[in-house]
Each structure stands twice: as structure tokens, then as C-alpha cells.
Amino acid sequence: MPASQQKPRTRRRRIAALLAPVALAVGIAAVALAAPIGSVRQVAGKDGCYTADGSSGSGPGTCRNIRGGEGATTLAISPGGRFAYLDGYGQNNDVPVLAVFRRSDDGRLHQLPGKRGCFSSDGSSEEGPHTCTNARDLDSGDATSVVISRDGRFVYVASQFRIMNDDIGGVAIFRRSVKNGTLHQLPGKAGCVSATGESEDGPGTCTRARETDDTSNVHLTPDQKYLYASNYDEPPHSGIAIFKRGARSGRLHQLKGKNGCITDDGTTAQSGTKVVCAKSPNLGEPWDVATPDNRFAYVPAAYGPDLVQAFERNAKGGLVPLTGKHSCVSDDGTSPAGPCVNGRGMNIVERAVLSKNKRFIYTNAYSPPSPLAVLNRNLKNGELSQRPGKAGCISADGSSGDGPNTCRDGRAINGGYAGILAPNGRTLYYAEYSSDALTIFRTSKKTGAFSQLSGKDGCVSADGSSEDGPNTCGKARAIDGAYQVALGAKGRDVYVAAEQGNGVVLLRASR
Question: What are phi and psi of 116, to 5 degrees?
Fold first, then answer.
């Protein structure tokens, strides 16, 4: 430094020395006020939500207007994160729409222009006829109703399509451009599977498949060889259809014989009393299929058994239930198939998310007190257990099927729906339909322990309230009827498909 500047430098040092305690105090305050890792805030302005009419509970013009979004159930983000696909039930006599978006580096969504930006069974959207591309057997499934192959070349969409009073269901199959995100349904029967081979275009327009008449969710195995389609038809006909997937063609081929499906008693709604599938009385109404590897699968069985059942994949790709007490965890230690581990928080359990190391399973239940639970998984034999005491679960009021004060007390936990784990394995997000909320939990990668973030950081709801009162959660527009959570590739961008909000919410996570 020039000699002429030596004195000023000395003086600055003295000033810096005097200000150092102040700076230290400010720094400490900043650290104290820093948002916890995984906590979220809605992106400001219209870019924070995307709805069918641009409105939210805060009024018209408070979100971006999109085609589709009505009764939104699922958002799937492509490998690489450049595109997103939003599915929904449709409302007010509008048909369900699959919407296609380009995704900016900052997480914002931009619907593709014209008919490339949406698909429906008749080419219409809430904006009128001929505003979307026509697709066969396209009708919303539930949360996690859209899955994209790891190479990004194919998209599979669960369908609950009905013709008159007949359940057709199935899966619609699309080829996807990795470059521009556009979709093209596979031609002819290859473009869909359904319970009768029908679609809205008539008989013989889809490939016929067993146990697909009310398909709610679709899941690809880690090796990408098989697709599991959950069918939540009422027991004994609820179950899972199992397909071999063509890696090059994207086509689905149902496994032969009983390996191609599994139901409570081996029958389907179409087969009557004829046994055409494998049997597992512990299926109940299956929703998620958690696949940690290419050997085991775990299925939450709601509305009857109230348990999580472990399965092993056989040499032909079929699912075989494990046996013995540790093959399942139920709310009371019993099941239709025999004894289970006596667990807590399994009441109407619908959803399951695996930990990053695959040693733990985080479940979510729908009906009050809507507990979340953590199960331990043996990596070698696939067996399940649950840790003792309150450490095993969190519920809306601290209760479980074992009585009051048997779980920890959480906030905004009501109507548990689909969740996801952040890429770093440290934050768990779950949608809560009846609370109109997103709930946020810190997880231990080593032990599987989980706890809700404290205060408002632990939840985001439509009005900022929870069962604990007003201003006990953060607030987000259009999150009503939260259904499913999706994340950008690095976990910074958090999306919530909201069935009552009629669209998708964009939040930014602290990292």
C-alpha cells in the first residue's frame, strides 16, 4: 500500500477494533435468526403458485394462470430438473388434465405453449375445447400418479378412467423428448393398458391388463425393469398390477400368470371368483410401494389391516409377502395373515418414504390423529421393527391406537398424504390434506430419528394456523388440500400439488 495511506489504515484498524464487538453481536444475532435447514418460505408474488384460474384464497390474480391444475394430485420433475408434469382430478365437470412445464433455474414454472402444454382425454381444458392434446385413457390417479423413467424418455400416468359406470382404469404411456420435454403417447394399444382393453376411443384401443381398474399410483423399481401399479379398488379386489417395462420401447408387458398381480384373495373385479393373481390378505387398500432395492418392496395397507407389509421380488418379478412376525408392523400386532410387530401410528397408514440409507421407512396416516411413524428395516432379510416409546411416532395430539401420550405431539398433522425426503437425507416433507399444510421434519441419517421443526418452521398452511391455534405455522397461498410434495434436483425448490388449491405451490427451502 502507498506510504500516503499508512495513517488512514491505522485509523481504520482502530475503528474496526472498536466495532468488532458490535459486529460479533450482529453476527451472533444473524446466526440465531437464520432459518433452520429444510424450512421453507413461499416464493414471492405470482411465481409462488400456479392455478387453474390464477387465483388463491388471497384473491384473484395472486397466482400464475395455467391450463390444468384443477384437483391437482401429483407433480413429477424430470431427471435433470428442466421440466415438470402436473396431474389432477379435474373439477366442476372439467376433465382431468396433464400439464407440461419448462422449469427455470430458479424453480419457476412456464407452461409449454399451445396444445403441447397439456393433455386430456378429449383435448379440452377449463379454457375450452381443443386447448390440449387428446390422449387415450388419461384420467388422474391419486398422489404419485406420474412417474418418469430414469433416462427421462418415458412417462407413465395412473388412470381411474370410467366409461358410464364401468371402471376401466389403467396406465397411459408417453414417449418424452429429453431435449424439449414434449410428450407423445405411444401409438395404438401400446399407448395404454386398462382393465378391459377399452378407452374413451372404444374397445381394443388399449392393452388389456389384470388388476388395473382403479389405478391410483405408479412406481418404477430402482433397476427400471418393473412398474408397480397400485389399485385401490375395495378389498378383496384391491392390489398391485406388475409389469415388465421395455427399456427401449417404454411398453408395459404384464407378467404372466399370477406373478402379474397380487390381491387380497387372488381375484379381481373382472375375474369374479376366479383366482388370477397371487394372494396376500395383508394388502388392504395399497397406496405407495416403497422400493429400496431390487429385492424388497414395502406396501402400506390402509382401510382394514392398518399395517405395512414387506414383500420380496421373485425370480420372475412377482411379489411374494414375507412371513413371520417381522414381515409386517400393524397397529395392534395382528393381521389377516397372522402376527405382526405391534407398532404405533399405523392407523389408516397410506404413505411411505425411505431414508437415504434405506434402513428406515417413514410412514404417514390419513385419519385422525394422522400419525407419522418411523420403522426400522433389516437390510439383509427385509424384516421390519419399530423403536420403542414416543420416539417411534408423531401425531396431531400425541395419541395413537395405544392411547393418549403414546406419540409425540405435532402441528398441522391431519389427513396425511404423499411426502419426500430431501436429497441430503436430513429433511422429510409430508403433505397434510385436511390441514391444508406441508409439514417439515428433521431426520437423522444414522439413527432414523425424526422430529418436527420447532415453531412456524415446522409447518406451512393456507392461513398460518394449525390445531394449536393461529400463527403456529408459516403461510402459503393455494396450498389448500395439500396432496403431494416434489423437489428440485438439489432440494432448494419445494413444490406442493394442492387438490383444493387447484394447482401447485412453489416454496424455497433453506439449505
Answer: -65, -20
Q: What secondary structure does DSSP assign to 161-211, as a single string?
A: -EETTEE--EEEEEEE-TTT--EEEPSGGGGEEESSS-BTTBTTSSEE-TT
With beta carbons less than 8 A apart as the criterion, state whether 83 and 183 touch: no
* 56 DSSP assignment: B
Q: pLDDT, tens digit, for every residue of 236-245?
A: 999 999 999 9
φ, ψ (nearest 5 deg) of residue 15: -65, -45
**Helix (H, G, I), strand (E, B), or coil: what is residue 258?**
helix
d(CA 210, CA 278): 12
Tell whether pTM > 0.90.
yes
Element (H, E) at 261: strand 261-263
Task: Give 387-442 pLDDT, tens digit per residue.
Answer: 999 999 999 999 998 999 999 999 999 999 999 999 999 999 999 999 999 999 99
- pLDDT tier, 485 (very low <50, low <70, confident <90, very high otherwise): very high
What stretches of 27-168 adopt beta strand conformation (E)? 40-42, 49-51, 64-65, 72-77, 83-88, 98-103, 109-111, 118-120, 133-134, 146-148, 154-159, 162-163, 166-167
